[in-house]
Amino acid sequence: MPNETDASLARRTVRARAARVSALLLGGLFVGFLLLVVVFTEYRRAIDWVDHTHEVISAVGELQSTLSDTESGQRGYLLLPDPVHLAAYEEGRERSRRLLDSIGMLTADNPVQQDKVKALRALTADRLDQIAGVLRQATSEGLEQALATIREGKGAGTMAAIRRLTATMRAEEDLLLARRSRHATILEVLTIAYGVVFATVTGCLCFSTVRRMERDYQAERAEGEALAATLQENRILLDEVNHRVKNSLQIVASLLRTQAMRHRSDEVRQELLDSSSRVLAIAEVHRRLYGKGAVYDTVELTDLIRSIAENAVPPTGGAEPAMTLAADTPLPAPVDTAVPVAMIVNELLTNSYKHAFPDGRRGRVTVEMAVAGNEVRIDVADDGIGLPAGVASGGGGFGLNTARNLARQLRGRLEIERLTPGTRFLLTFPMKPRAPTQA
Amino acid sequence: MKILIIEDEFLIAEGVSLTLQSAGHAVTGIAEDLPTALALAGREKPDMAFVDIKLANGSNGLDVARELKAMGIPCVFATGNPPSKTQAGGVGLGYIAKPFSPRVLVQTAAFVAGILSPCAPSAAAPNGFVAL
Lengths: 439, 132
Known about the structure:
Mean pLDDT of chain A: 86
CATH class of chain B: Alpha Beta
Mean pLDDT of chain B: 90
Number of helices of chain A: 10
Structural class of chain B: alpha/beta
Number of strands of chain B: 6
CATH class of the largest domain in chain A: Mainly Alpha
Number of domains of chain B: 1
Order of helices and strands of chain B: EHEHEHEHEHE
Number of helices of chain B: 5
Strand order of the largest sheet of chain B: 2-1-3-4-5-6
Strand content of chain B: 15-25%
Number of domains of chain A: 2
Radius of gyration of chain B: 13 Å
Radius of gyration of chain A: 59 Å
CATH architecture of the largest domain in chain A: Up-down Bundle
CATH topology of chain B: Rossmann fold
Helix content of chain B: 40-55%
Largest interface: A-B, 28 and 26 residues
Low-confidence stretches of chain B: none
Strand order of the largest sheet of chain A: 2-4-5-7-6
CATH architecture of chain B: 3-Layer(aba) Sandwich
Shape of chain B: globular
Number of strands of chain A: 7
Distance between the termini of chain B: 22 Å
Oligomer: heterodimer
């Protein structure tokens, strides 16, 4: 048993240490997870910046395209004065304004681009005004006048300036795009690598934890099975010992009885029968200590005394005992009280049966037991021929003297009263009734 | 009654025998194992048997009781290891638990006599006898 306890203790120590390490590792994993989240978030932001740059490039391109469409509208109107071409101009104007606002918002973080947007806004406004002027001239002054204004080249110059400006803006955005794309790629690789490492470490940790728990569980199970086997062995051993004791007590009682029945001397025969009876009285106590539902250190006195009283009656006749019991509740007593009580009651009863009814005289033996507070009173009385005076006042044979000594052992007393007719033995002793312990 | 005793502890068997004889019964023999028990039972035709459970030479009292029941001989177990109803399987009338007093032994014999013979005075099952 000490080996198994030591193993359990060692395992508990290891388990506690492993729990601390696991807690640290879990903490580390948690921090690692937070870092992974941060890296991933940065990666997402980098991707957003790349998309943002594409949007700026696209908006700038679209502005240029819109202005070209507006110029086409102007040309179309000059070729064929159809209000449809004017609508194209109006639409282009409106779209240009929105695109400039959009580009302004998108490049709000870039002061260099912001200056260019301001210039672009001015140039765009100029170009649109120029186109509007030409269209008005074509309507009011005629086509030739409008064409003459176009030939002046102001509009072409403004458009060229717009193209140069949008080209520098696009170049700036292209640089930004390249830088941001690189940044996003690095973060992507970092995220993937970190994710793989994190997953690997987590997986390894989980695997080793599960394996350790499995090993622990198997060890505990094995120990539990070993303990259960030991317990079962002990139970079998206890049953065997109990059986041996019962058999041995039966052998001793039987041997004394056999010897008694073969002895020629009546006196010796009676002594041997008395001894056999005493052994059986002790055996009654033993029978109640072990077995189904028994408690190893407590005996119920009422039932014990009933058995002692019945067994004390000679097997081939004699007065039948009349027994009055104590209150309904059982009276559990410790074994070191039960044995002397069994011996005393057995002595008193066999005494009555031996001496109170000579020559076939019939009579009655009564046994009463009562409890008052913590004092137990056992009253054995017969209506036989009574004890000689000397015996009642302190004399008597081996049995009666044994009973007196056992009463003293119980810290009680044995009183003898001569009745008319018969004798009364009153045993009183203090006892604190014990609550039965669980079997 | 004629009673067969099946017990491997000689001192116990002798005590039981003397007690039953002093109560007026005839003891037809003492057997310590199954073969001896069957031989004695076949030859002496007892009215009943007191049977211990743990016997010599690996014999078991339950097997003995089963064989005797088949021969029409009722058994009462006299044992320190009382069998359960399930274990006894209807082969014994009951048991008295060791260590038993002479009174319980004699009263049990009288009780069985009452069961076996309508003419014999019937006796109540004594305290200490447990029916199976």
